[in-house]
Amino acid sequence: MGKIKDIPVKVLIDTGSNVNVINKAFLKKISSQYQSKKNVEIFFKLASNTVVRSNSTVDLCFSFKNTNITSKFWILDDKDSCYDIILGRTSQKEHRLYIDPDDDALYKKTDNKSICVANPVPFLNSIESIFTISIRNYKQKTSILEDLTN
Q: Does the residue 130 lie in any domain?
């Protein structure tokens, strides 16, 4: 969990994405503090295989403990409640953030050491959603393979 001012933020660390994303519903909660900008239209394929488009971004500053992160976020109208923002790999590198495989916590590298900036928080609904997506994708791939072999 992070914070934007005093508002708690569910942050999904996505090592497979190069961009940052903010959920449109969450942006509405904090919109008085931030102005969106029109940008080129871009399409995103979500974990559920749904394709959504966006042509708006917002510059956000949020924090984990004492670590402030400022970056551009694409605004997505996504119904997924497991995140408010997704922090992509580019911002992770820029801010020297990484997930430790031993404790799954988020760390920031400094010159001398690594500092834990956030501990993982399980979201049961998210785990169930991810499982459902995985099963659905498996069934789709299986039926495609069956069609090819018949």
A: no
Compute the distance between CA of residue 22 and CA of residue 149 in angstroms, rounded to an integer.
Answer: 42
DSSP, residue by residue, 83-126:
-SEEE-HHHHHHTTEEE-TTT--EEEE-SS-EEEEE-----HHH
**Measured between alpha carbons, how far is residue 45 from residues 29, 32, 73, 88, 150 in Å?**
25, 29, 16, 14, 30
Residue-wise pLDDT for 12-26, tens only, equals 888 888 899 998 889
**134 is a domain residue:** no
Pairing relation of β-strands 97-99 and 85-87? unpaired
CATH code (residue 32) = 2.40.70.10
Report the alpha-carbon distance of residue 136 to residue 133 in Å, rounded: 5
pTM of the complete model: 0.74
The answer as to whether 108 is a domain residue is yes
